[in-house]
C-alpha cells in the first residue's frame, strides 16, 4: 500500500513538472497578433520562444489595421506587434494597452519590386515616370487607406509627385504579403512592399528603394494588451526584446531598435 501511495505521488509530481516551462513557471497559451510583414520572422520566433519558455505561442498574422480592429472588438490577443504606430495609438487611446509595455521594436524600409528578374533598377524620385513603366498594367500595394505598407507607399508617391498619375492604376491587396504575392505570380509587374518582404520572396526583384524622407518613419511598436497580463504575456514581451528574437528579426532584414 505504501508503494502504491509513493508511486501515485511520483506520478502527480511528474505531471506537475510537465506543466512547467524551462523557467519553472507554469506553461501558458500565449497569442500574439502580428503584422503580416513579420510572417517569416514570427515563424522562427514561435519555435524559439516555445523552446526557451515552455509556453505555447499562437501567431495570428494580418494587416495591422485588421488586427487592431479585432482587438477593439475583444479578440483574445495577449501581445500586439504592429507595423504602424497609428494603430497602436488607437488601441492606447481606447485603454487597451497594458500600462508600461509599449516600445518601438523595429524599423523597415520601402522598396519598389518587379516580377521580371531582368528589370532595370530605377532611381526613385520626382523624375521617375512610374506611370509610363506600368503602361496599361497595375501597381500592387496594400490597402492605401488602412494597411501600414499601403499608407506609407501612398505617402511616398504623393511626396514624389507620382500619386496623381499612378493612383488609378493601383491594385490594392488586403495586406502587404498579398501585394507581394501579386507581383510574385506575375499578376502585377510592379509593387510597393517592405524591404523585408522582398527578401522573403525569390520571385521578385528589388529595383529601387524609396528615400527615407519620402514617407514617415516605418516603425513597429509592440505592447501587451490590457486585461491579458500574466506570465505568458510577460515572457513573450521579454523574449521579443531579447537577443534570440533580435537576431531573428535581423536575419529577415529588419533594423532592430536598441532597448
From TrEMBL:
Signal peptide extent? 1-27
Residues bound to molybdate: 37, 64, 149, 176, 194
* Gene Ontology BP annotations: molybdate ion transport
What domain of life does the native source organism fall in? Bacteria
Q: Does the keyword Hydrolase apply?
A: no
Among InterPro entries, the record links this protein to:
ModA, ModA/WtpA
Keyword Signal on entry: yes
- Which keywords does UniProt give here? Metal-binding, Molybdenum, Signal
GO molecular function annotations of the record: metal ion binding; molybdate ion binding; tungstate binding
Q: Which Pfam families match?
A: SBP_bac_11
Gene Ontology cellular-component terms for this entry are: outer membrane-bounded periplasmic space
The annotated subunit structure for this chain is: The complex is composed of two ATP-binding proteins (ModC), two transmembrane proteins (ModB) and a solute-binding protein (ModA).
- UniProt cross-references to PANTHER family, sorted A to Z: MOLYBDATE-BINDING PERIPLASMIC PROTEIN (PTHR30632), MOLYBDATE-BINDING PROTEIN MODA (PTHR30632:SF17)
| Similarity comment: family membership | Belongs to the bacterial solute-binding protein ModA family.
Name of the protein described by the UniProt record: Molybdate-binding periplasmic protein
Q: Which organism is it from?
A: Roseovarius tolerans
Amino acid at each position: 500500500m505504501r508503494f502504491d501511495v509513493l508511486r501515485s505521488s511520483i506520478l502527480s509530481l511528474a505531471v506537475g513538472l510537465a506543466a512547467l516551462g524551462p523557467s519553472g513557471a507554469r506553461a501558458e497559451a500565449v497569442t500574439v497578433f502580428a503584422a503580416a510583414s513579420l510572417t517569416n520572422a514570427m515563424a522562427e520566433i514561435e519555435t524559439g520562444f516555445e523552446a526557451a519558455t515552455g509556453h505555447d505561442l499562437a501567431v495570428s498574422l494580418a494587416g495591422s489595421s485588421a488586427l487592431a480592429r479585432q482587438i477593439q472588438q475583444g479578440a483574445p490577443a495577449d501581445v500586439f506587434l504592429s507595423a504602424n504606430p497609428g494603430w497602436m495609438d488607437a488601441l492606447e487611446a481606447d485603454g487597451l494597452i497594458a500600462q508600461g509595455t509599449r516600445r518601438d521594436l523595429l524599423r523597415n524600409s520601402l522598396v519598389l519590386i518587379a516580377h521580371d528578374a531582368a528589370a532595370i533598377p530605377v532611381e526613385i524620385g520626382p523624375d521617375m515616370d512610374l506611370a509610363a513603366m506600368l503602361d496599361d498594367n497595375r501597381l500592387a500595394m496594400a490597402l492605401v487607406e488602412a494597411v501600414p505598407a499601403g499608407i506609407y507607399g501612398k505617402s511616398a508617391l504623393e511626396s514624389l509627385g507620382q500619386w496623381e498619375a499612378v493612383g488609378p492604376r493601383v491594385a490594392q491587396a488586403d495586406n502587404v504579403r498579398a501585394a507581394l504575392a501579386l507581383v510574385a505570380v506575375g499578376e502585377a509587374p510592379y509593387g510597393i512592399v517592405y524591404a523585408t518582404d522582398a527578401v522573403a520572396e525569390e520571385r521578385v526583384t528589388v529595383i529601387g528603394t524609396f528615400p527615407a524622407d519620402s514617407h514617415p518613419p516605418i516603425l513597429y511598436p509592440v505592447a501587451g494588451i490590457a486585461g491579458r497580463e500574466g506570465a505568458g504575456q510577460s515572457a513573450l514581451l521579454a523574449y521579443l526584446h531579447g537577443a534570440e528574437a533580435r537576431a531573428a528579426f535581423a536575419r529577415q532584414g529588419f533594423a532592430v531598435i536598441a532597448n
